[in-house]
Amino acid sequence: MSNQRVPIEPQRVDAPLTQSATFLVVTATKKPDSINTIRSTLAGLDSLAKNVSIRDLSARFACTVGIGSDIWDDLTSLPRPAELHSFREVKGEKHIAVSTPGDLLFHIRSERRDICFEFERQLMNQLGDAVSVVDETVGFRYFDVRDLLGFVDGTANPVGPSVPASVLVAGEDTSAEGGSYIVVQKYTHDLSGWGHLSTEQQEKIIGRTKIDNVELDDAESGQRSHKTLNTIEYENGDEHDILRDNMPFGSPGSAEFGTYFIGYTRRLWVIEKMLERMFVGDPPGLHDRILDFSKPLTGTTFFAPSASFLANLDSE
Ligand code: HEM
Q1: Is 271 close to ligand 1, i.e. is its CB under 6 Å away?
Q2: How many domains in the chain?
Q3: pLDDT value for 237
Q4: Pfam families from the entry (predicted)?
């Protein structure tokens, strides 16, 4: 099994869910060689991935790199993806989706924590002082793909042919074709407050039952659930899906309990609309009650170009 050939393709935004993931966000330093070092590291990312993933092919290693708006022009000298801009803060009456810096995101996934670790170690060796780390979060898969609030997370993700259709830019923006916008937010939870709610109250907030994960209708009060606020529809009623690979993280010893939100999308505006509906509310004032127990510490937007775009970065 461990020697079976499986594709080791860079920029697999649709890579399978894994037991372990590292989310690494860095900014470029002002050193004279920083941009060159980053460019050659990104162009050689496929070799770096091979170095590590060949050691256990069954561990389903994948790394996706996202490039932030501020560094795009210097790094690529190529046309910008049409929707790419920095994360825009969303200010609701009670909660704020903060915007935090980040030039590059590495979303590193594997069944094995040691493989994520080893890849990140070799990556950081190559990047050296060209970058400084803004945030590094190590996520793990929790029972039944649950988040730390206790709910199964990821159910409504697209599957099959709907994945590329929802996630990859196509003919609408030819220079960005095959790439994907990424939004990340690192949330920490007030688990003790959440634990004081009854299971029924929690289920109303999420919009699904806790044990068996069945969808629930919203209450008549007008307060919409997390599930409903994040359902964005075309005029014909079809949904604009995004692909999420959220991961729990934390440390009971230091009372840290979190969810690292990561969303991949073909249309950045869809995730921005979701954030507006969560933080401002729909109707305005009735925000997503998940936020009364979950606080975003970061918020950053990236564009993950196609693998061929990345490999050619160094060719000029
Ligand atoms: C505290 C962080 C978050 C937690 C713990 C969380 C958890 C969940 C859970 C348990 C579900 C229901 C099951 C499922 O379909 O996955 C869900 C649905 C969903 N969430 Fe979140 N979520 C978080 C943040 C976000 C954010 C920031 C966004 C978007 C900006 C988002 C977008 C969605 C979408 C699109 C759905 C599916 C809605 C549908 O049924 O079509 N979530 N989330």
Answers
A1: yes
A2: 1
A3: 80
A4: Dyp_perox_C, Dyp_perox_N
The answer to whether residue 165 sits within a structural domain is yes
Query: 145, 154 in Cβ contact below 8 A?
Result: yes
Residue 10, burial from CB neighbour count under 10 angstroms (0-12, 13-18, 19+): buried
Task: Collapse the DSSP code of 255 into the 3-class scheme (helix H, G, I; strand E, B; otherwise coil) and give the result.
Answer: coil
How many Å lie between the centroid of ligand 1 and the Cα of residue 226? 6
> Comparing C-alpha atoms, which of 240, 261, 93 is closest to residue 184?
261
- Taking the centre of ligand 1 as the mean of its atom positions, its distance from the CA of residue 31, in whole angstroms, is 39
Residue 12 near ligand 1, beta carbon < 6 Å: no
* Ligand 1, pocket-test mutation among 147, 226, 232, 262, most atoms within 8 A of CB: 226
Q: Is the CB of 147 under 6 A from ligand 1?
A: yes
Is pTM beyond 0.85? Reply is: yes
171-199 residue pLDDT tens: 999 999 999 999 999 999 999 999 999 99
Region 46-66: what's the mean pLDDT? 93
Residue 316 lies in a domain: no
pLDDT beyond 90 at 10: no
Regarding the beta carbon of 259 and ligand 1, being less than 6 Å apart is answered yes
Query: In 126-137, which positions are buried (b, 16+ CB within 10 angstroms) versus exposed (e)?
Result: ebeebbeebbeb
Domain assignment of residue 253, yes or no: yes
| DSSP, residue by residue, 259-314 | EEEEEEES-HHHHHHHHHHHHTTTTTT---GGGGSEEES--EEEEE--HHHHHGGG
274 Cβ closer than 6 Å to some ligand 1 atom: yes
Calculate the average pLDDT of the chain: 95
Among the atoms of ligand 1, which is closest to the Cα of residue 207? 12
Report pLDDT digits (tens) over 279-290: 999 999 999 999
Specify if 56 maps to a domain: yes
Calculate mean pLDDT across residues 47-76. Answer: 94
In the chain, what's the furthest Cα-to-Cα distance?
60
Q: Which of ligand 1's atoms lies nearest the C-alpha of 215? A: 40
